[in-house]
Design brief:
The complex is a heterodimer of chains A (115) and B (225).
Chain A (H helix, E strand, L loop, with lengths): L10 H13 L4 E10 L9 E5 L4 E3 L7 H14 L3 E6 L3 H6 L6 E8 L4
Antiparallel strand pairs in A: 1-2, 1-5, 2-3, 4-5
Chain B lengths: L2 H12 L4 E6 L5 E4 L11 H10 L3 E5 L2 E8 L4 E5 L3 H12 L3 E5 L15 E3 L3 H8 L5 E5 L4 H13 L4 E4 L3 H10 L9 E2 L11 H18 L4
Parallel strand pairs in B: 5-6, 5-8, 6-7, 8-9, 9-10
Antiparallel strand pairs in B: 1-2, 1-4, 3-4
Classes of the chains: A alpha+beta (115), B alpha/beta (225).
């Protein structure tokens, strides 16, 4: 009866989906923006979830760095050691992944444990 | 993140309760706290409450290293009393800004799906509807009926709630009369009247812009002017 229109997926919906994915037997990693400098499209606290097949939901930038975050997430899903990724102008990797927005951003990537 | 932590965050969301997740960025250790529960104690409680109000997550630098303070607030809601012409513009604007919008109007000629196809509508009386909806600190309430029979009971309920914004349509004269009628209530200065930022709005769409602007200002600036 009630039709709701959402303009962005809230972090809470992502977390619900993360639980569903894990229950389906998928490996799940969470990526969270923890710091930004300069112009950045997503503020601290923005999240993205990733599974082992590189399915992603949510975002940590305007689409500039998601590819690199996924690569890191795949490794973290396996070895389990959380890490911080930093992207910014002047950073080789940032140019590679095309962080054209002119900001710097730190992303915390962690594995969703089973218990 | 532990699965138990994730489950607790999902429970808090379902209960529309604010939670804060503290992540030690070196060890990866996480702790979930509920700063708005009256019995919660934490050395940073005041800072955490400010972060909650500002809806701002940040890295806290301490002698022991860095901790990420992540705020999980319940979703924003806008309750509009009065399915009037201004509401037809305000509903989609507020939805675009991320609000879940609920429209209250007991007059089904106004509050119906034909006029508001994409919005939750209740035809209950405002005081009953407000009791069900329980406005919280992430809720804004807007009164647009011009009719004291409808506006006043909703105002009374809003003033007892933690709604972060309460606004009522009407000229300065109308608002003065309203304040006289509601003299017996506390915290009448929480009501913005006339409603909206003064941007010289003339037509319903512009008035909707001024209302959403004022709500945004309350949300982001709080008590700061």
């Amino acid at each position: 009866m009630t039709q709701k229109r959402m303009t962005e997926t809230s972090a809470e919906d992502l977390l619900k989906t993360a639980a569903v994915w894990q229950d389906e037997g998928r490996k799940v990693a969470l990526a969270t923006v923890i710091k930004t400098w300069g112009s950045s499209p997503r503020q601290a606290g923005s999240m993205m979830i990733i599974d082992q097949n590189m399915t992603m939901l949510g975002s940590v930038s305007g689409g500039c760095i998601e590819g690199a975050v996924i690569q890191e997430a795949l490794e973290i899903m396996n070895h389990g050691k959380a890490g911080i990724l930093e992207f910014g102008v002047g950073d080789e990797q940032a140019w590679d992944v095309g962080l054209a927005c002119g900001g710097t951003i730190q992303v915390y990537v962690e594995r969703l444990e089973k218990a | 993140m532990k699965r138990t932590t994730l489950d607790q965050l999902n429970v808090a969301k379902a209960a529309k309760e604010t939670a804060v997740l503290l992540t030690d960025l070196k060890s990866g250790e996480q702790k979930l706290i509920y700063p708005l529960r009256p019995d919660t104690q934490h050395p940073l409680l005041d800072d955490l409450k400010t972060a909650i109000r500002d809806d701002r997550s940040y890295v806290l630098e301490t002698e022991d290293g860095e901790t990420f303070v992540q705020v999980f607030n319940p979703p924003l809601r806008l309750i509009i009393v009065g399915a009037v012409h201004i509401s037809q513009f305000l509903v989609p604007m507020a939805q675009s800004a991320g609000y879940e919008v609920i429209l209250i109007d007991p007059r089904s000629a106004f509050g119906n799906k034909a006029r508001f196809p994409n919005c939750e509508i209740t035809n209950e009386w405002p005081d009953e509807a407000m009791e069900d909806l329980k406005p919280d600190h992430r809720t804004a309430v807007v009164l647009l009926t011009h009719d004291p029979k409808l506006d006043d009971p909703a105002l009374e309920a809003s003033l007892k709630s933690e709604a972060f914004y309460i606004g009522a349509l009407g000229s300065k004269r109308t608002h003065t009369k309203r304040l006289d009628r509601l003299e017996h209530l506390k915290n009448l200065n929480r009501i913005e009247g006339p409603i909206g930022l003064d941007i010289g709005a003339k037509n319903p769409a512009e008035i909707a812009v001024s209302i959403l602007a004022s709500i945004t200002k309350s949300l982001r600036h709080g008590d700061k002017t």
